[in-house]
Structure formats: structure tokens, C-alpha cells
Amino acid sequence: MIVLDAPRQAEASLVRAADAPSDAPFSDAPFLAAFRASEAPMVMTDPALPDNPIVFANPAFCHLTGYAADEVVGRNCRFLQGPGTDPSDVARVREAVGRGEPLRIDMLNYRKDGRPFWNAMTLTAVRDEAGAIRSYFAVLTDVTGTKQAERALAREKDGLAQDVEARNLALQAALDQQTALLHEVDHRVKNNLQVISSLMLLKARRSRDPACRDVLRSMADRIGALATVHRLLYSLSDVGRFDLRDFAADFAADLEAGLDPDRIALTVDVEAVAVTASMAAPLALLVHELAVNAVRHAFPGERHGRVTITARRRDDSLVLEVSDDGIGLPADIDNPEGFGRDLVAMLVRQLRGRLAFEDLGPGTRAQVVLPLGPGH
Predict the structure, then answer these.
(1) Within-domain flag for 2
(2) Where is the Histidine kinase domain (predicted)?
(3) Are residues 250 and 357 in the same domain?
């Protein structure tokens, strides 16, 4: 640090030094008067003397520190340091003095009565015309109030951060609990659906009426598709999202297991499109109905062919297509798929989508466009 204010003899020597502008700390008496009158605490040291002592300190410095002029002149500024002064700050000042470089630093210093204060110090080397350092000049500013406000703000920020962290932990715990509950619900629903599907298949095997058997097996397949949805939701960490590609892969494996691979081929090309969990069940039923209807109705007798399932995200919509190269739509029948076609139309309306059938000649394409929204 650097301090200034001198006894009368030091002041007199500085005034006399005005006659030697290249050697004196001040080059003229008016500057010395301005230095003394300044409200900013100022101090000057002489590096040519042992231990770079203070040679001048103005009254503002004495008022700030509580020391009289004759108590500081002749001493190195380190007497302002105390137990709370950061050694790294002291080292920075020492390095700046050693290199003759300017420095701006905030240091914790102590007044004569032991009270600490934060000192924002600007240190400058004063050089002669030849560039040699003649003295060091420092301006001090008491920024204790600012530092206290900064520390209070930091404590408040830390308190807020801890409060936010505690709230986040509480919210995460609540979310984990809710997720576990939803997983348990999906698990139980899946088990119940599988039981219902098994009961219907058991009834179908015991039924003597072929039409009744077909209806029961169709319903069991639909329930099985819903069970697959809940099984996938149960395995996901994000219970709010459902990946259509995962369902399509599982569904295709089950569907292929019941097909004659030498007669009907199945191709599945579905993107990893995440939809809301609320869309999962109706969307799964939609894929099931369109694909199963194509397999059952497009290839009568021993006809060979292929069924293709595709799904793509297009802007904010999901485009689902199920196509085949079978016999196509009969021109004289409005609803060739019966209940399945009605169910598809109902599901599309529920999902606020659009449904279109196209005769490919040969074959049929069913296209469903469903809104997803930017957040899906």
C-alpha cells in the first residue's frame, strides 16, 4: 500500500523540491496544494529509500485511516494490513511495485482503531523524463459499503439457490413418486388386459360358431395391442411420451408370427416419433386395425402379396400409411372392413386427424394424418 501526509519538515522539503522539477515528487507548489486539498485519500512513497516508505499523505488519508501524518510518514504501507488481508492481494501489490506497473485492486485494510475497511486502491508509478521511477502514487477509496452490499447479495443469492435446490429436490421426489405410481398403474393395466385377452381367446377356442370365434379373436388381438402399449409405457422413464417405433416393432413381430411367410410379407418403416401418452392407446389401435384389415382382406384365398406400414413426422403432423398390393377396395361396398373400418374412422376423429383411402390398382393405401403440435 501507499500513504501520504507529512510533518512540516517533509512538506517543506517537498515545497523546496519544486525548484528541482526532475528530482522532486511534485513539480510545483500548486500541485502540492491540490494534492493536500483533495477529498480523495492519497499517498506517495519513495522507492529510493529503504523499504519504500511513505513520504507524503494528504489529510483525507489521515481521516480515512485514523492515523496522524507523523504516524505514517517514514513507514511502509504494510502497517494497514491485518489478519483478514488476503496474502494474494499483498503479493499482487508487491509484484506491481517490483515491475513498475499500474494496479487497481480491492484490499481489506485496517484503521488505527482496528476497524476493517475495504480499500479500492489505484497504484501508479511516477517516472521522470528519462523513464526512471521516482515515486509511487496511490489513491484510496473506501468501498466497505459496496462490499457489504455485495456480500449480503451473495448470501441472499446463496439462500435463494439453496431454497431453489430444496424445492427442486422436493419436486423431483414428487415426480419420481408420481412416475412410480403411473408405472405401477400401467403394469397392472397391462396384466389385466392380458388376462382379459386370454379369457377371450379361451372362449373363442370353445365356441362352436365360426363367426363368434372370429369376433372373439379379433377383440383379443385389439386388447393385446393395448396391453403392449401399457407394457411399453411401464418400461419408459418418461411416462408422458410414447415411442411409436417401439410399438410398431413389437406389433410387427406379433403380426408376422401369425402370417404365412411364403404368401404374405410385412415391411415396417416407422420413424422414432414420440407422441403423448394420451395418444398411445388410440394410435396403437389405429395401427393394429389398418394392418390387420390389410392382412385379412387384401389377399383372399392363396393370393400372395405385401403389407407395408410407414410412419413419418411431417412438420407438426404424423403421417401414418398402411398399404398393400392386394385386391383393392371393392367398388360396390362402402365399408368392406366392417367394424374395423368404423373403428378406424372413430379413432381418427378422436385424434383430430384426417383419413383417406386410395386405390393403388392393385392394392390399397390408407393414409392417416394426425396433428402433433410443436411440443411433441
Answers:
(1) no
(2) 184-374
(3) yes
